[in-house]
Amino acid sequence: MADDGMLLNFELGDTTVASQVKFKGGRWRDRVKAQKSVKKWSTTENDDDDDASRPAKRPMAEDAASDRPLKIQRTPNVSDRAPSHAMKTGQISSGLFTSNPDALTTFEEQPEEAEPAQPTNAPLSGEAENFLKLGLSRRIAEHLASKLEMKAPTAIQKNTIPQLIKEDNDAFLQAETGSGKTLAYLLPIVQRIMSLSLNEDGTTKDTKVHRNSGLFAIILAPTRELCKQIAVVLEKVLRCFPWLVCTTVIGGESKKSEKARIRKGVNILIATPGRLTDHLDNTKVLDVGTVRWLVLDEGDRMMEMGFEEDIRTIVGKIRADKLLKQNAEGVVLDGILPARRVTVLCSATMKMDVQKLGEISLEHAIHITASKSEMENDAATGGTEAGFAAPAQLKQSCIIVPAKLRLVTLIALLKSTFARKGSIMKVIIFISCADSVDFHFEVLRNTLARKAIDPDAPVTKPDPHTQTTVAAASYVTSPANPTVMFHKLHGSLTQPVRTATLNAFTVCQEPAVLITTDISSRGLDVAAVDFVIEYDPAFAVSDHVHRIGRTARAGRSGKAALFLLPGSEEGYTSLINSSSQITLQLYESTLQKGLSSPVDLPGAGSTLETEKQSWAARAEALQLHFEQRLLFTSGGEKSEDAPKGKAAKGKNSHGGGRAVKVVENPLLISGRQAFRSHIRAYATHVREERCYFDITQLHLGHMAKSFGLREAPGNIGGGVSRRTHRPTVKNTRPAGTSSHRDRDDDDKLGLVDEDAARRMRAKMMSVMNASSEFNIG
Q: Could you tell me which residues belong to the region Disordered (predicted)?
């Protein structure tokens, strides 16, 4: 076609034409982000440049337009320098001490107490206070004094034991944690059963009551750990009456062996509601005709865990069975044992669910507390709502910590805790969910063998049940305590592992830390627990009281620390009912105290860079260390999920050929899963307290850094990922854990759905009424 000679002129103006920038390599999400940032910058420059002579890029002036945010100038620190791996992936670590929200609390100097507070749950003092005068036999009183080192009762025991020995009324026991409620109902039961074998002068009858004489008492508890602890206490009491037998029936153990023990005979049965219901339905040898006592320990917790229908079934079947006046051997029970079935309900509060449980199980019950003033006050208020504060000798503190600094602040707190030898022996750390417990245990443990850490350590045969739940600690050790043992415990572990782990923590002679969920918050009495750390706040303020009640028991001293985010969470302190003043402190003091000395890094061969670093530089270097640990991938290894005999095909970094598939770091997968579970658990706070724990105000990016992540993982709400093909990944769960965990396929793959992160705040409003499975792991 011939040229018609037409010329087209385009007026370009005086503005320089910007060349199109195209990014290659790396991840497609990083390329899209970079492309958007360049486009935004070029648009802004074209809108603001009225003078053609002005350079395309210029420094921001301090008096720039008000609609432009001023960039904060700060000194570069160690966390701003991206590691070599971050250079390849395009991920840059942000500073720990920038862009953090300000605390709303005014921190004033806390006045030092002139003298320590008097314990409120200690045994009573005075010559007139002893177990013999409460109606117990001399044999029991001497056994308590000589074998259990208990010479005087506590206040709740003084008010309960005579009542349950002399009267046959139902009772509701209410007292603060660590005050001895367990012995308050166990001793009267043992005293009256033992009376069947003794004459009035204290001599033993010819026909003693033994294990085949009948089942006289059933004790229900919400968790397996609490059942075992009650059994341990009861067995110590029964050592002066070896012909009486107690046993436990709990979930997670063999029902066949439990049936065999019941068939051999038992006088006192300790059980969880679900397993007892099963035995009442299927075990014919379980005869409840002679049962005189039904004890519901931690009744509020059983209602929270959804055992209402099981308790209704148990109460109904026991009451429906005819009450026998004598057993199969002809021993007359009336006159010594109660003439009716007595129900004892134990709880620290009188919430609505406890009142509902009382309506199910109690008839004309009397209310017993530690002091008469509390009983009179309850009668005046009608018993609508009552609760107990923590013991007065328990020192509570709240640490206001921004989300980004939570992990390094926890390490600094533990490091300062174990700085002196013998000052603190055992610490319990409460975390909201099981996945987070697993992650923090793995990230803080020492991966080296025990002998490599401490050559002088005694050689002991390892327990196969605790191989994945007990390990030596890293980061928190000190010259005074070179060995600190970490333990983890949550409801997703199998029962043998849970039992062995709790026993290992109890008998450990070295400084020890237990990382656990709320499964350990009720009733557990571990000696020498000096410090309780609530790394994640409790889902209800009543659970907070039970958590910190693991220390300062029976008159002993103790400390508790609560981590709160700056902002709305600071108002949560107004709900805490404390007998003593709660100390409020900012995270800087904890970091300064804990990071005043260098931190040993596992496998690094040296401390954090130089000993001349400031505490802030050490904190940033420590955070960068965790992020690099999670980003590390074991390249060059064959993937476990790859088909046998086939190597993954693809181009390697040298320009082509066959390459072996890279295995993603399991610690990174665990961190993502822990983050997702933590956010979901955060949304399950009780409705009355969500004004303080508002999921919509939570900064996901900052919270991700507390899990060693450099970006918030997506798919938090469990939505459908846009990826259609999902390769199969082998389960990386540690040994000894059961499979009934909250699951998500994308969690194991570590996929990042960026839209899910933006939609999270709207989505989480729909899960506000989620179940409380996170409380028990």
A: 24-102, 635-658, 715-749
